[in-house]
Inverse folding.
């Protein structure tokens, strides 16, 4: 935990010395989490499908016109989830699974009362939950154009349920 927190503190210091703010640093960390989950996963799937000769994803050229409302959210450091994209499915699924895991772990702690056994799991899970706050916000709290599309929410919830069900079957004592 010391190394983890130390690495984050060093990164924050470097970012601050380069002229960044704490909010920009935190959003940068969140973007790295999304980049680690979405493009690499989808790129690996694309490569695998190409390798076995199956048609892969196509590239859709989209308009890069930014509306005034989007520009305003960008200046405020608010994430934009308003477009249905397969890139949002993996981090949304991971966010849902981590929230469920965090809540189950917390319930288990209150039920059993043994913090020593679940401390690290709760620490890591709570860290991911905090990092995923913009996703939870886009799913449930936002009413603007940056709200997560229903198609992405339903797809992620279905995928999270399938993965959670598979994991509970495999890990059942």
């Amino acid at each position: 935990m010391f190394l983890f927190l130390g690495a984050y503190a060093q990164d924050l210091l470097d970012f601050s010395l380069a002229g960044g703010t704490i909010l920009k640093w935190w959003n940068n960390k969140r973007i790295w989490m999304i980049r680690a989950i979405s493009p690499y996963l989808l790129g690996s799937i694309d490569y695998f499908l190409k390798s076995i000769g199956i048609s892969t994803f196509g590239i859709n050229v989209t308009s890069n016109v930014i509306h005034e409302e989007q520009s305003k959210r960008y200046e405020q450091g608010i994430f934009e989830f308003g477009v249905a994209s397969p890139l949002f499915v993996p981090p949304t699924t991971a966010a849902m699974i981590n929230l469920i895991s965090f809540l189950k772990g917390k319930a288990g702690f209150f039920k059993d009362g043994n913090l020593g056994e679940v401390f690290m799991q709760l620490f890591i899970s709570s860290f991911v939950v905090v990092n995923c706050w913009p996703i939870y916000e886009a799913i449930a709290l936002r009413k603007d154009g940056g709200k997560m599309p229903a198609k992405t929410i339903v797809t992620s919830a279905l995928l999270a349920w399938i993965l959670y069900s598979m994991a509970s079957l495999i890990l059942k004592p």
About this structure: The first helix runs from residue 2 to 17. The chain has one domain: 2-54+72-170. The chain has a mean pLDDT of 80.
